[in-house]
Amino acid sequence: MENIQHVERHHRHDPATHQCTSSVSKHIKAPVDIVWSLVRRFDQPQKYKPFVSRCTVQGELKIGSVREVNVKSGLPATTSTERLELLDDTEHILGVKIVGGDHRLKNYSSVVTVHPEVIDGRAGTLVTESFVVDVPDGNTKDETCYFVTALINCNLKSLVEVCERMAMLDSPQV
């Protein structure tokens, strides 16, 4: 019940008529501290995001910091400029807004929350990422949501793999 209230509080977006919004959740068989240690790294998204080839952040990592992300080939973009909107290490919340780049994701804003849970009797984590974005000219809301949701699913699938591998290395061998 607590997770539902948390999701409702942090993943509620009020899209305008020309925007779409959705969310994706994944269960990870790894403790929340391992998962959060990767998610919170605004300066190193390439640690788990497979389409990021390089990321640079100028100055200290804090709310308002801006990162320049280079995107690997295969996506309809090469760069993205993104601002850190929210970083809460207590509640495990990360908020990011795209502020520039050579792509079609205008007015994109996302929130990622990380929640501890028990999976198969062991420490696990529920990760939820939600977004709101403008629908580009020539696309429908459904097409835009499908594209962004597929991208998030790919990123979270990679996060699952990286975190579960880290958890296996951390756990005592039986």
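the 2nd protein, sequnce then structure:
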Amino acid sequence: MCYVIITSASLVWFLCSLVADMLFAVALVTPRWLVGPAQGTDSTSSPHRQSSVGIYTRCKVMQEGGFQCGRFDLDGLATDSSVYPSEWKAAMFFVTLGFSILSVTVLLTLITCCRQSACGKSIHNMTACAQVVAGICMMLGLFLHPMGWRANRIQRLCGMDAEPFYPADCSIGVSFYCGIIGLLLTFTAAGISLKAESSNMRTRVRRRVEAGSKLVCIP
């Protein structure tokens, strides 16, 4: 029989996973991991016009006053390490892997509303394990990116004093914080999955299913 079970725990689990996945996406594609110092003293200048860099993208204030954003991994992971630091290539791999895994788990959180197990294994437990792996991947990405701050690209942006885990004149950008918040939410979601599984197995839920209800909503 086809039925759908929605509990407050499963809803929170889904929303937490979805928000974490969106934050991973923001961290991956936006060039705001490091933000360079403000240029000039024009009171009308916007912080959005500061030079910045992400995992594989950058924005640059041009000398003639223009502003340009784009990718610098022109050959992907095969890009020369003087242009695309090896540490950032590794960060790109792990963040992309974590984002891909977490995206799959978001779909799995929806599947658990209709199906509790697959091949004799709890879908909740398998999804929680996958979310832990996704979180570890993002953690590695957040650790590897600062290791590449000695690169010439960063020293031109932040000053010659820039070194691993010390951005010199630069500041940590919103993309980096999105990665951190997404990481915390991912581990939180993995923990909530245990509560979601137990709430789906409560006596009240089983009684509603046995009574023939196709949609079971339990707070």
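The CA atoms of residues 1 and 214 lie 8 Å apart. The first helix runs from residue 8 to 29.
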